[in-house]
Specification:
Elements (H helix, E strand, L loop, with lengths): L1 E6 L2 E4 L4 E9 L6 E7 L6 E6 L6 E3 L7 E6 L4 E6 L8 E8 L13 E2 L3 E6 L1
Parallel strand pairs: 2-11
Antiparallel strand pairs: 1-3, 3-8, 4-5, 4-9, 5-6, 7-8, 9-10, 9-11
């Protein structure tokens, strides 16, 4: 089992950048594929980005491709999401998740472990 805690959310202006972190504890972080998802009130959870256990593969939603960058530091048991050129439509609660897989995954149903989320608000 792995426990996940996100941090780094906040209120920013459109065009600004922000980096989210996800600290993992418990079972070996390096064994899991990791992902970022986001959700607005009353809407479905949306896939943002995923990274394989070794960082050899990454995958992004079309809506964030070229603006967001997912990375991980297995020595520090930490996952990151660097967000640039933020838009008001990026406003959501962002959650990290871990899947018992070696490859990238966009399907939320495959992820077994979730953090509590961190709020990102982008003002226009």
């Amino acid at each position: 089992q792995v426990q996940l805690v996100e941090s780094g959310g906040g209120l920013v202006h459109a065009g600004d950048s922000l980096t989210l972190s996800c600290a993992a504890s418990g079972r070996a972080f390096s064994e899991y594929a990791m992902g970022w998802f986001r959700q607005e009130p009353g809407k479905e959870r949306e896939f943002v980005a995923s990274i394989s256990y070794s960082s050899s593969m990454t995958y992004y939603a079309d809506s964030v491709q070229g603006r967001f960058h997912i990375s991980r530091d297995n020595a520090k048991n930490t996952l990151y999401l660097r967000m640039t050129s933020l838009k008001p439509e990026d406003t959501a609660v962002y959650s990290c998740a871990a899947a018992d897989s070696r490859t990238v995954i966009s399907d939320a149903r495959v992820y077994a472990y979730w953090g509590q989320g961190t709020q990102v608000t982008v003002s226009s």
